[in-house]
Amino acid sequence: MERRSSPGLVDAVRIDIARLHATWMELLFPRQLDPGRVVGKWTPDTGPQKAAYYAWAALGVPLVAVFYPLLLFGFATRFYAARVDSAVARLGVVGVVFVSVLMWGLLTVAAWLREFPFHGLVAVGAAGAVATVAAVAALGFSRVGGRLTSVAFAYPAAVTAFLLPPVIAALYSPALGDVVFPNSQYVAVWLLENVLDVGGIGARLQARFELRGVAYAVMWFALAVPVGWLLGVLVALANVVRPTGSDGGNGS
C-alpha cells in the first residue's frame, strides 16, 4: 500500500487559504466549507444568485490576504495553548493552586527579605491571589467546554493570570518597574494615538486619567480581556480552517 504523505509547505498554505476563503463563503452560502460527499458543494443557479455569490467571493479575497497572517498566529497560539492546557490538566485544580501559592509565596518571602513596606507585601500577595484565581477560572472554563465559553471566558482569564501579577509586583520592585512601566507607557501611547483615536476617545482618556501607580494594573486588566478574546477567536478560526489532527495541523 502506498503511504500517504503529509502536504508540503506550499500545499499546506494553499489548503489553508482555500479553507479560509470557504469559511468566508459559508457566512452567506450553505455547504461551502465542508460540503460532504453526498450533497456536494452548493452552487448558484439563477442570475441574481450568481451575481451575489461571485461578488461575495471577490470581496473575500482581500480579507483572506489580511487574515491569513493572523491565522498563522492562531496556529502558533493553539500549539502553545495546547501544551499549557495539557500541563495544567495533569496538575488539576489542586495542583494549579499549589504551584501558584508556592511560587507567589516564595516571591512574597523574597519581598519580605528585601524589606518591602507592609503595603508592598500586601500588593505582592494580592498579585498572587489574582494569578491563582485567574488560573483556576481559566482551567474551570476550559473544562466546561464549548468554543464560545473558551473564547469569552477561558482565554481572558488565562491572559489575566499572565499579565496582571507582574504589573502589580512591579509597583513595589524598582528593578521590575524599570522594565514594566516604560513599556506600559509605550503601549498606552500607541493605543491612545491609534486604536482609540476615534471620536476623540484617546484624547479624553489622556485628559482624565494619569498612568501611574494602580492605574497600570487597571490598564493591563482592561487589556487582558480583549487580548484574551482576540487569541480565543484566532484559535477558534485555526480550528475551523485546520482542524486538530488534520494533515498539516498542529496536532494540539
Secondary structure elements and their pairing?
Layout: H1 9-26, H2 47-113, H3 118-144, H4 147-170, H5 174-195, H6 201-208, H7 214-241
Helix pairs in contact: 1-2, 2-3, 2-7, 3-4, 4-5, 4-7, 5-6
Q: Could you characterize the architecture of this molecule?
A:
This protein has 252 residues and is mainly α. Helices cover 77% and strands 0% of the residues. It is built from seven helices and no strands. Helix 1 packs across helix 2, helix 4 packs across helix 5 and helix 4 (147-170) runs antiparallel to helix 7 (214-241). The radius of gyration is 23 Å and the shape is elongated. The two termini are 28 Å apart. Residues 247-252 have low confidence and may be disordered.
Give the amount of beta strand, in percent. under 5%
- What is the strand tally? 0
Stretches where pLDDT is under 50 for at least 5 consecutive residues are: 247-252
Structural class assignment: mainly alpha
* Helix content percent band: over 70%
Order of helices and strands: HHHHHHH
Q: Terminal Cα separation, in Å?
A: 28 Å
Average residue pLDDT: 79
